[in-house]
Amino acid sequence: MRRRLLLLVSLAASMFVVHTAHDRARAARAAFPKDEDLLYLPAPEHLAWMSLGYREALADLIWIRALVFAGSHLTDDEIVWTDRYTEAITSLAPRFERPYLWGGISAIYVGGKNVDRSMVERAIRIYREGLEQFPESHELLYRLGMLLLHQVPITPGYGDEEIRRAKIEGARLIRKAAAFGADPLVRQYAATLITDYAGRQLAIQFLQSQILEAEDEALREMLRQKLAQIAGRAAVTDVDRIQAAFTRERDRQKPYVPLALWALLQPGDAPYRDGASGRTRPAGDGPGRPPDKAP
Q1: Predicted pLDDT of residue 288
Q2: Does residue 282 belong to any structural domain of this protein?
């Protein structure tokens, strides 16, 4: 009987201690800033083992919390924490593309601070990390290109030589984004950058490839005009002959196949193809039937 009584007393005392500690913890938490739980995030090296093997699932949860955080801090300086969220998410799931896009744009264009060099450099780093995982992402290529081409020159702290190099790289990345499937507006913009930041032969090759790939006739005509300005009307005529030969060969062999798919299926010895690389070549370049002759 005495043992039971002692056990009940001990249990009651333990419950009192736990209840008191819980009340103190709640009181302490109430004194925290409103969004302190959103600001706290363990270091990336700790998150991997905390995920218990469910790295992508934890990355999704942090991604959701990051969006909640950014939505409630659109106009204050705490937006710099988006950099830490991006690092945490991408360390857990490096093949998750959206956080790179979100992190790069929110690092500088969201918040109440004026854009400075440290913010631009942070955005550049995030985009470059994304491109290491997705080197053909036209969204990442375009955003980094625009950042280098337009934001760097107007941000205090950059020297003339740094700005010059940034513009050259930015134009190159925008052209690359166009080549990897960016929308027609990006392709049109890329074409306007050609004469300023590219060598003549590179400009011609880029415009030729874009004319062959363009599906919109208005865009194709704009690209033709640009090519004519750089290389003359003969260069445009060559590309048109290549395009016609490409279409005729598709119509002869597989007329039911879309042109974009036929570009992948066509044989490597086609008259408008480079057999080694599979890329389109200009008229009269190398062996094979002239592209202006029907197969």
Answers
A1: 32
A2: yes
How far is the C-alpha of 212 from the C-alpha of 163, rounded, in Å? 33
Domain count for the chain, please give it. Answer: 1
Q: State the burial class of residue 173 (Cβ atoms within 10 Å of its Cβ: 0-12, 13-18, 19+).
A: buried
The b-or-e profile of 142-153 (16+ CB within 10 A means b, else e) is: bbbbbbbbebbe
Nearest to 186 by CA among 152, 132, 141: 141
Which pTM value belongs to this model?
0.63
Predicted pLDDT at 281: 42
- Helix or strand (DSSP H, E) at 189: helix 184-197
Containing structural domain, residue 238: 232-295
Q: Is residue 250 part of a domain?
A: yes
CB 214 within 8 A of CB 220: yes
Region 204-213: mean pLDDT is 75
CB atoms closer than 10 angstroms to residue 174:
28
